[in-house]
Every structure is written in structure tokens, then in C-alpha cells.
Write a structure and sequence with these properties.
Elements (H helix, E strand, L loop, with lengths): L10 E5 L3 H13 L3 E5 L2 H11 L3 E5 L7 H10 L8 E5 L4 H9 L4 E4 L4 H16 L1
Parallel strand pairs: 1-2, 1-3, 3-4, 4-5
Helix pairs in contact: 2-3
Length: about 130
Amino acid sequence: MADQIPLQGVKVMVIDDSNTIRRSAEIFLLQAGCTVILAEDGFDALAKIADHQPDLVFVDIMMPRLDGYQTCALIKKNAKFQRTPVIMLSSKDGLFDRARGRMVGSDQYLTKPFTKESLLKTVAVHVNKAAA
């Protein structure tokens, strides 16, 4: 299904302190034709976001220094990136985590480990929503 969705040239930022998660997301996204920007934590992401202006951001919740909630809140507070979809990534699938993600402005919640299908479908949904 994800193969029919044109994701060519979509800029996606993946923020995760796990090298494995960053690399697997990068591989899936590159295969779909996306441009991928990787960041290992919130500070790294905030330094790169202005330069790269991604169309969509995946952010891990549990990270050192600046966690995913704080990173999401800072991205959404910036007028330039207010409308950029931010998808929380977490190995925890609790109601509290989802609610907290919504409170800081996240657009969706994806549970790790994610599949190639779920990752690409999430990108497609938000990119199409933004284009509509």
C-alpha cells in the first residue's frame, strides 16, 4: 500500500538517541524516496531544524538532556514550524503518554518498534493532510 504513495522529496527529521532506530527509520524513508535528517537528541534537532525545515518530524520521547515532549513543545512554539507535523515515538503505549504528547502539540503517536509500513503510512497521511 505504501508503495503507491508518492513520498519522493518529502523531508523527514528523525530524532532518537538510539542509533538502531535512527538507522532503520532512515533506511525505510530513503527507500520511499524521502530526504532524511537525523538528530540524536532535542538539542541536536533544534540546531538542525531551521537549516533543513523538514516537512515532518519523528521524535523519540525518552531522550537524555531534552526529552521528546520538550522538543515537540519547542518546535510547536516556533511560528515557522507550528504546522509541521510532529509524531512521537515511544516503546511505551500508555494513555498518559499519548495524552501528554497531545498536550505539547504532537500530531500522532507511533509505538516502537515500528514497521516500514506503519512509518511510511504515517508520513503519507500527514504529508497529504498538509497538502490538502
